[in-house]
Amino acid sequence: MFKKLVNRSTAKSPWIYHINAGSCNGCDIELVAVLTPRYDAERFGFKLAGTPRHADIVVVTGPVTAQSKDRLIRTLEQVPEPRVIVSLGSCPKSGNVFKGGYSIEGPLEKYVHVDVTVAGCAPKPEAVIAGLAQAAQLLKQKREAMKK
Amino acid sequence: MAELILSRLFYVLVFPGFLFCSAAGLLLAGIDRKMVARMQKRIGPPILQPFYDFMKLMGKETIIPHNAAKKVYLAAPVVGFVSLVVTALLIPIFGFTAFSGVADIIVILYLLTIPAVSIIIGGAASGSPYAGVGISREMVAMVSYELPFVIILLAVAKKVGLETGEGITFSLAAITQYQIASGALITKWALIPAALAMLLVIPCEVGSQPFDVAEAETEICEGPLVEYSGAPLGLYKLNYAIKMFIMTALFTTLFFGGPGVSVGNEAANTAINAVLFLLICAAVTVVCITLIHAVTARLKVEKLFKFYWTVVTGLALLSLILVWLGL
Amino acid sequence: MSFSFPFVREAVSQLFSKPSTERFPFVPKEAPERYRGRIIFHADRCINCGMCIRVCSPGAITKTVEKTEEGDKVTMSFDLTSCTFCETCADFCSKDSIEMSRDYAMVAQDSSELIVTGTFIKKPPVKKAVPPKPAPAEEAPAAPEASAAPEAPAPEDSAAPAPAPEEPAGAGPEAPKEA
User: Fold this and answer.
1) Nearest C-alpha of chain C: how many angstroms from A6?
2) Disulfide engineering: C42 pairs with which of B18, C10, C97, C155, CB 3.0-4.6 Å?
3) Are B141 and B204 in contact (CB under 8 A)?
4) Higher pLDDT residue, B266 or A21?
5) What is the pLDDT of residues A39-68, one digit of tens each?
6) What does the pLDDT average to over B133-137?
7) Cβ–Cβ contact A49 with B under 8 A
8) CB–CB of B272/B91 below 8 Å?
9) Quick check: B40 and C2 CB within 8 A?
10) CB-based contact, A51 to chain B, within 8 Å
């Protein structure tokens, strides 16, 4: 019974941590616009966490540049289970216009398993909310699949 | 004998101990978040959101960093939680006190420093430089609000002592009796600066903006709590919520005390009194914690210290002087 | 006081007024007109010119060609996870076969949902029968006629500027009329 309460609450209070892996900041602006009064993601319980150890959903923007690659991997290792990784925009998936550049270290999928992809350059805040809502449902499924 | 033990256990575990103060604290935290959102012209989370947060944190994995001192790391939030529950047992709710023999303002003052120290110790045990910066800020914040807090309590105690002829009395039971006899202390105009000063001390002790230098999210990655995850973090967030309840409860008891309703049956009395108490606590929360939270940004550490040791201490000293002059 | 509490009046009045949040998932929201959203590819209009591939800045468009007996089976695929939504491909397409719709919610857990493809068969152009070359006898009378015709206006052109160089406008139309 306690477990059922825990499982139900996991979808209702997802905390977001945002990593900028060399992005142009367009997608970052749309992500924080989602927390403003007009789109208000907080009514679903989303909250920006200050440290990756408090996060459930990790949102990564930007093509993975050479300078941010090691730091990205180290930060992603610190996120406790159950966790969902969302790649926002087209940069983490394919590099967009920066493909083949001298400092682009490849798509995010090389380093970690990406659960939800939100396409767009930059995606509209409503698309970001739709992506985050899918991520919250996925989080609940992962929590139910956990052993403890 | 068994009945005594059973009733004591009931006080400790259910009302006003563990379950009641947790639920009340989380409810007040939820009301605070919702009201902040409404003041900022948005919808905000449901009022039960802190309950969902706590349950979710119970289900997350607990990661203990390599550099951390393991036993202290896990024990620090528990120590804070226990001291807060004990404090909740000592505060009178309109004439009902769980353990009235030891309900003393000095005891409560000492007990209220323990949760702040538990954050400091938890942060120190984390082994992270962000936590180090956070705990030094928390120490500055503690020093800032302790001084005006002590002066406010002195003023209230002296007032009641003078009126009842004992000189000075620190017993919460005596303060409650005095308020039952001759009206709530907020109506004595010599104590109004003290009430104002207490309204400014509450946000700092609770750790809500603009005085939350310790838990500065964006600046130092949440300060002392940076390496916590899972159940210990859930316990820290619960401590934060219960502290909100305890501080507003203290304010209500000291300044708005009274006999409460009396419908005859004692259990029903206590229940209705508890609900009334919570309503006044919620109103105090909205006025002092939420209103300031919604309109300000965070203060710097030096400015926080200066603010508390000049303005707030000045108000409390004014009240103390007025009371000592016999007004 | 070292600082003051601004906006308190606004905060209290906003507490009692309606919030300005758009209830997005419960109330549907449409993108503005001419919003550049998901790509729609009309395969029947494409002629396989390759202009869109040339102008696409992130190189999101790829083409695979399979030879069949009817002609070339061309598959154009638009990778939305690489697209920057600039509409240059639709701008350059001469047959209007690329269109950007107003669909903005492109969220997928499986990224193969985010590739738009279209296949069409390009038949080779039908070759017209070429007429045979004319015989050499017909060429001889045509040659002097052809050489006489250009000779006639040549002396007129050299005569026109000689008589009246100050009035080239008047001499110009008169010279051909005299001849």
Assistant:
1) 24
2) C97
3) yes
4) A21
5) 888 889 999 888 899 999 999 999 999 999
6) 86
7) yes
8) no
9) no
10) yes
Assess contact for A24 and A37: CB atoms under 8 A.
no
For B229, the token pair is: 């995850």
Cα-to-chain-centroid distance, residue B279: 16
Compare CB distances from C107 to A37, A96, A127 and report the shortest one's residue: A127
Length of chain B: 327
Residue A131: what pLDDT?
A: 93
**Nearest CA to CA, how far is C45 from chain A (Å)?**
26
| Token pair recorded at residue A69 | 């690659």
Please tell me the predicted confidence (pLDDT) of residue C160: 44
Domains and CATH numbers, chain C: 32-106+113-122 (3.30.70.3270)
Query: Long-range contacts made by residues C8-13, C-beta under 8 angstroms, separation at least 24?
Result: C8/B291, C8/B295, C10/B295, C11/B39, C11/B40, C11/B291, C11/B294, C11/B295, C12/B39, C12/B291
User: C-chain residues within 8 Å CB-CB of A119?
Assistant: 80-81, 83, 106-108, 114
Q: Are A143 and B42 inside 8 Å of each other by CB?
A: no
Amino acid, single-letter form, for residue A44: F
Name which of A116, A26, A136, A112 is nearest C113 in CA terms.
A116
Looking from the CA of C97 toward its CB, the CA atoms found within 13 Å total 22
Instruction: Enter the ipTM.
Output: 0.91
Question: Which pair of structure tokens corresponds to residue A22?
Answer: 């060399």
Q: Looking at the complex, does the CB of residue B201 fall below 8 Å from at least one CB of chain A? A: no
Provide the domain count of chain B.
1
Q: Which of residues 291-320 of B touch C (CB under 8 A)?
A: 291-292, 294-296, 299, 303, 306-307, 310-311
- What domain range includes position B296? 2-324
How big is the B-C interface in CB pairs under 8 Å? 45
Which residue do the tokens 């300060």 mark? B223
The verdict on a CB contact (< 8 Å) between C15 and B295 is no
What distance in Å separates the CA atoms of residue C75 and residue C61, rounded to the nearest whole number? 10
User: What pLDDT shows up at residue C163?
Assistant: 46
CA of B228: which chain A residue's CA is closest?
A53
Q: Which domains does chain A have, with CATH numbers?
A: 2-145 (3.40.50.12280)
User: For chain B, what is the mean pLDDT?
Assistant: 87
| pLDDT tens figures, C11-41 | 888 888 888 888 888 888 888 888 898 999 9
CA-wise closest residue to A113 among C83, C84, C79, C111: C111
Q: What are the DSSP calls for C99-166, one per residue?
A: EE-S----EESSGGGGEEEEEEEEPPPPPPPPPPPPPHHHHHHHHHHHHHHHHTHHHHHHHTTTT-SS
Identify which of B38, B295, B307 has the shortest CB distance to residue C8: B295
For B222, which residue in chain A has the nearest alpha carbon? A50
Residue A56 · residue A148 · CB < 8 Å: no
Chain A positions touching C82 (Cβ under 8 A) are 90, 93-96, 99
Q: What is the pTM of this model?
A: 0.84
| Distance to chain C for B131, nearest Cα, Å | 28
Give residue C2's pLDDT band: very low, low, confident or very high (50, 70, 90): very low
Nearest CA in chain B to C6: B295
